[in-house]
Amino acid sequence: MGGPAKTLSQLALTARGGANPQITGLAVDSREVKDGFFFAALPGTRVHGGEFIQYALRMGAAAILTDAKGAEIAAEELAASDAALIVTEDPRQALAYTAALWFGAQPEVMVAVTGTNGKTSVATFLRQIWSELGHAAVNLGTTGVEGAWTAPLAHTTPEPITLHRCLAQAAEAGITHAAMEASSHGLEQRRLDGVRLRAAGFTNFTQDHLDYHDTFEAYFAAKEGLFRRVLPPEGTAVINIDDPKGGEMRAVAAARGQTILAVGQGVGDLSLLNQRFDATGQDVRFSYDGKVYQARLNLIGGFQAQNVLMACGLAIAAGDDAERVFETLPHLITVRGRMQLAATRDNGAAVFVDYAHTPDAVSTALTALRPHVMGRLIAIVGAGGDRDVGKRPLMGQAAAENADIVLVTDDNPRSEDPALIRAAVLGGAPCATEVGDRAEAILRGIDSLQPGDALLIAGKGHETGQIVGDDVLPFDDVEQASVAVAALDGRGV
Ligand SMILES: CC(=O)N[C@H]1[C@@H](OP(=O)(O)OP(=O)(O)OC[C@H]2O[C@@H](n3ccc(=O)[nH]c3=O)[C@H](O)[C@@H]2O)O[C@H](CO)[C@@H](O)[C@@H]1O[C@H](C)C(=O)N[C@@H](C)C(=O)N[C@H](CCC(=O)O)C(=O)O
Ligand SMILES: Nc1ncnc2c1ncn2[C@@H]1O[C@H](COP(=O)(O)OP(=O)(O)OP(=O)(O)O)[C@@H](O)[C@H]1O
Ligand SMILES: N[C@H](CCC[C@H](N)C(=O)O)C(=O)O
């Protein structure tokens, strides 16, 4: 994949001294370098990639891309080598454009969506809409590549080499439409800079990832990069103007000359007017271009209507007819691990699995379940290890404020002591019950369900493993829920 060797100049790169070798492949990790490769030695969060230039040269690298620091670290080895050297202030951006040129093809219609919560949901709904309209479509993000062509992904927004390899494979497989998620890490690290977008969406902005971005301002600046840098001026920005940061994002996009399509509740170009909830979903009324529409959504959770409207806005912005887009809405199905009905007890009580792993998502998910539930709302929450520590008590608080009963349990403790993470979550939910073992928490939560009650198991959604230290132990909330219901109600799974 990537075709035959290309010279540096074919990749729009200029090396010091004008060297122009043939490149046989690209690598961002020195351990993947082979003879004739281009190695991007990037400044890292733990170490500078310049430390691995010596190894890459030994493996036969024909060209090295780095910044001044990387060139300084490997000055001696570079001087002794005849590999071409490209030094730039922003090697991550250069890598993104190089990967785009190397792999060449991208699906013809590409859009991206950013925001703290809702990216996977919007991208998945958009892919479903496109598929209903007859387009060969995929969505790419936290749940991998899904749709007419599938592949696993390790990141929500893959690094440029993986991303462009994947886009080129999708294009070669006949995929014409792709909706991708733009994570703040991905934007900040310029992973999307070489992607040709027609439209981009902004869902919302609340607390997450402050372990990486340090401040809210830096976190927002990363997200803004989608409209400030990646989406071209002729693209359409689909903005949720209900979010307190929506106005700011709209101003960034407008200043760049992008067309704005505002989505909101009772305001905006695509405006949600009413919602009526029942046990299996909701009926929605909305307006677009001066006309009022009504549609059935077989989706649980009021916020999913906002995500659906954002997906509609992106489909329209990317070129589809609005009336035809709206006709697809009754066919949309639950996104894996997002307000997914995992099991139902014999007494009718329902168990939902959801990926809420931020304070706002926990409160949104629980608030959204209320109108679908007659009895009590029980929540199981936990927070991930090696992630934003500030969000832990806030997640506990969000659960305590919006559920009738809360159980605090483990969610990917990674390298941390799970008891300390639980203690931090319990700090915001002092009345909660602590049950470290997640399977036991699920069993106890389900055991307590009475007729009309519902249980929300938050945090892991589609995930299939519990990360403890360096081990990934098989664990699937949906599976655990159905096993527990079967055991308690005396049926086979
Ligand atoms: C924090 C973060 O985003 N790190 C990403 C970053 O790596 P880094 O800066 O930490 O790398 P490093 O370990 O300091 O090493 C520096 C450089 O040396 C290279 N290296 C390292 C060792 C070696 O032997 N040889 C070598 O060449 C590395 O490939 C790297 O380019 O650049 C790497 C290459 O592009 C990424 O793989 C890596 O993602 C790591 C694995 C990661 O877990 N990222 C997560 C946090 C992430 O990106 N998450 C987002 C957000 C999800 C969400 O919204 O919830 C996502 O898009 O998935
Ligand atoms: N529009 C929304 N507003 C607030 N919360 C939402 C919204 N959409 C989804 N959520 C909550 O966030 C959770 C994660 O949703 P989703 O996976 O779509 O977001 P994401 O941005 O892709 O997250 P990540 O990048 O971390 O995977 C959902 O399970 C739900 O609890
Ligand atoms: N993309 C998010 C997912 C978090 C999911 C939750 N289960 C956790 O492990 O904290 C992250 O890596 O921060």
From TrEMBL:
The keyword Coiled coil is annotated on this UniProt entry: no
Motif (Meso-diaminopimelate recognition motif): 411-414
Binding site for meso-2,6-diaminopimelate: R387, D411, N412, P413, R414, G459, E463
Segments forming domain Mur ligase central: 113-315
EC class name: ligase
Residues with N6-carboxylysine modification: K223
GO molecular function: UDP-N-acetylmuramoylalanyl-D-glutamate-2,6-diaminopimelate ligase activity
Mur ligase C-terminal domain location: 337-461
Annotated binding of ATP, by residue: G115, T116, N117, G118, K119, T120, S121
InterPro entries referenced in this protein's UniProt entry, alphabetically: Mur-like_cat_sf, Mur_ligase_C, Mur_ligase_C_dom_sf, Mur_ligase_cen, Mur_ligase_N, MurE/MurF_N, UDP-N-AcMur-Glu-dNH2Pim_ligase
Cofactor needs: Mg(2+)
UniProt KW keywords: ATP-binding, Cell cycle, Cell division, Cell shape, Cell wall biogenesis/degradation, Cytoplasm, Ligase, Magnesium, Nucleotide-binding, Peptidoglycan synthesis
This enzyme's EC code(s): 6.3.2.13
UniProt pathway: Cell wall biogenesis; peptidoglycan biosynthesis
Subcellular location: Cytoplasm
Superkingdom assignment: Bacteria
Residues the record lists as binding UDP-N-acetyl-alpha-D-muramoyl-L-alanyl-D-glutamate: S30, T156, T157, S183, Q189, R191
Domain Mur ligase N-terminal catalytic: start-end pairs: 23-100
Catalytic activity: UDP-N-acetyl-alpha-D-muramoyl-L-alanyl-D-glutamate + meso-2,6-diaminopimelate + ATP = UDP-N-acetyl-alpha-D-muramoyl-L-alanyl-gamma-D-glutamyl-meso-2,6-diaminopimelate + ADP + phosphate + H(+)
Entry function: Catalyzes the addition of meso-diaminopimelic acid to the nucleotide precursor UDP-N-acetylmuramoyl-L-alanyl-D-glutamate (UMAG) in the biosynthesis of bacterial cell-wall peptidoglycan.
Family as reported in the entry's similarity comment: Belongs to the MurCDEF family. MurE subfamily.
NCBIfam families recorded: murE (TIGR01085), PRK00139.1-2 (NF001124), PRK00139.1-4 (NF001126)
Name of the protein described by the UniProt record: UDP-N-acetylmuramoyl-L-alanyl-D-glutamate--2,6-diaminopimelate ligase
